[in-house]
Design a protein that fits this description.
About 45% of the residues lie in helices and about 20% in strands. By secondary structure, it is α/β, with parallel strands linked by helices.
Amino acid sequence: MEKATILIVDDDERLLAMIRMILENRQYKVIQAMNGEEAITMTKVMEPDLIVLDVMMPIMDGLTACERIRSFCTCPIIMLTAKGEDEDQINGLDKGADDYIIKPFTPMVLAARIEAVLRRSFQEEKHQEMNVFGEIIIDLKGRSLIIKGQRVDLKRKEFDLLAYMSMNHGISLSRDQILENVWGYDYLGSESTVDTHINRLRRQLGAYGSYLQTVRGFGYRFEVMYEA
């Protein structure tokens, strides 16, 4: 299988060189940018399979760039954040990032995180089916939620969560299970991330928010009760 194209974005030239060397040694094709505006342009032109995006950069910061890239591109984005900057990590996930790595990091950690995110992305692309629950259609291939014929816009992780829950219809899933399968086994965030995204999904589902049921002291279950 052809190796992925990865866009790395950071204003630190030494770090760029190090990441490029790590990834090229693993046969990835690497392209790079040094600020958010360049990242947006490179994404449109080169259509990378994954983006490694630093938060703190001149001209346009990584959080703004992430949000703008998400408006036209669904490829995975890994944010690079400074140690202890929890707000940046939360904001990055809210704006569409799939994962984050805290600086400083080791080359092996970066490579492993990239490979894990790419594997999850590849598995998502293999799904061809639609999940239909009455007035709700979850198009796994098109990554769309349709309610009564109207498309509802979801952020990447919101859709990933809804897809995972719906594919396990009627099964009670722990928060740990959800974190591992939606965010990845190496995700360093807390279980409250699941609660936050479930609450957002309930609002997006509107009258059908009750399909996401709380399993007290354990986690959540996606269940549709049809009337006889």
